[in-house]
Design brief:
alpha/beta; six-stranded parallel β-sheet; 12 strands; globular
């Protein structure tokens, strides 16, 4: 299977697709939420679900704990996504669609808006997903959650338009690293081609998300690279960014997008690690693997999650101690 040939899907996955459509058709007003500090796939997926609900005559409230990254605000419906951190509605929702959340904790404080008996549709592609929904639509071999949403749209025979195509293309582009990661399958490229046929502005999106760099991004990159450290055998590379770095350079969270790849992309490195100090002194860890190490398992051991080759977690330790803990865990995994 390359395209949307449903006959090539497993019976279980086809059943999941149908149950997801039944869940949507069975409600009228939905809260659509992704994970805290949403990234490209999360925002794109939120937009696609909002669009899909509109096509089916449903009402949607789009919300995340965290703002839409500036570079993703070119998508029109992004302005409809409420940042719970700045605006906390009192409305409660009994129908929820959670997207791109590896587990229920990733929803964050938006979960306080769920009614006690809320029904939840969980749509995700993370292998660490624990099927926390009333209904679950999970395909761990999908490159991005938008790929699963494309399956859902095809299964429901819902015509695509430029808005949906732009969001799907953006989610694929960001979660495959510009179609460079190993999750770039023939089917991903086929879907991307279909989105181009629906007028997704590929050149504009690629230039905006992959090429352009703010001055703040360049300055914080300079600081991070100055601290790049290697293990004795050069198989582990780590770098860190402090809260002071962010404040002094004027950088924001999405300015760190892709910074961890500078560590991973050094010849011979098996795992790249980026540690970012937050305002409250916690450390957010991003890990990338060249393939020999399952970094999702390491992230899970610290209460995080993700994919085999890309995962993250949060530690309540200082930069130095957090680096030691994570590097030691990676070393243990490499030595197995």
């Amino acid at each position: 299977m390359i395209a949307g040939d449903s006959a090539a899907f497993s019976v279980d996955y086809l059943d999941q697709l149908q149950k997801a459509l039944d869940f949507i058709r069975g409600g009228n007003r939905f809260l659509v939420v992704s994970h805290v500090q949403p990234d490209g796939d999360a925002i794109s997926s939120t937009i696609v679900v909002g669009w899909l609900l509109e096509q089916l005559g449903k009402q949607a409230v789009l919300m995340n704990e965290g703002k839409v990254p500036v570079r993703l605000q070119f998508m029109d419906r992004s302005a409809m996504i409420i940042n719970y951190s700045h605006s906390q509605p009192t409305e409660k929702f009994d129908r929820v669609i959670a997207i791109d959340c590896a587990d229920s904790r990733r929803i964050g404080l938006v979960s306080t808006l769920f009614t006690q008996d809320a029904q939840l549709l969980n749509i995700d592609h993370h292998p660490t997903n624990d099927a926390f929904g009333t209904a679950n639509l999970i395909r761990v071999d999908a490159a991005a959650t938008v790929e699963i949403l494309y399956d859902l749209i095809e299964h429901g025979a819902i015509p695509l338009d430029k808005e949906a195509a732009t969001a799907i293309y953006t989610g694929l582009l960001t979660d495959t690293g510009g179609f460079r990661y190993s999750n770039t399958t023939p089917r991903v490229m086929h879907i991307a081609s279909r989105m181009l046929a629906e007028s997704a502005p590929a050149h504009f999106i690629a230039n905006l998300l992959l090429e352009q760099m703010t001055k703040a991004q360049l300055l914080v990159l300079q600081r991070g690279l100055s601290r790049l450290l290697f293990s004795d055998d050069n198989k582990i590379a780590s770098l860190y960014v402090t809260y002071a770095d962010m404040a002094e350079t004027g950088a924001v969270g999405d300015d760190l997008e892709g910074l961890v790849n500078y560590a991973l992309n050094v010849e011979g490195v098996e795992v790249g690690i980026l540690l970012k100090e937050t305002e409250n002194g916690e450390v957010k860890v991003s890990m990338r693997s060249a393939g020999k190490v399952d970094v999702s398992a390491i992230a899970q051991s610290f209460g995080g999650g993700g994919h085999v080759r890309a995962a993250g977690c949060k530690l309540e330790h200082g930069i130095s101690e957090a680096t030691t803990f994570v590097v030691n865990a990676v070393r243990e995994a490499l030595d197995k």
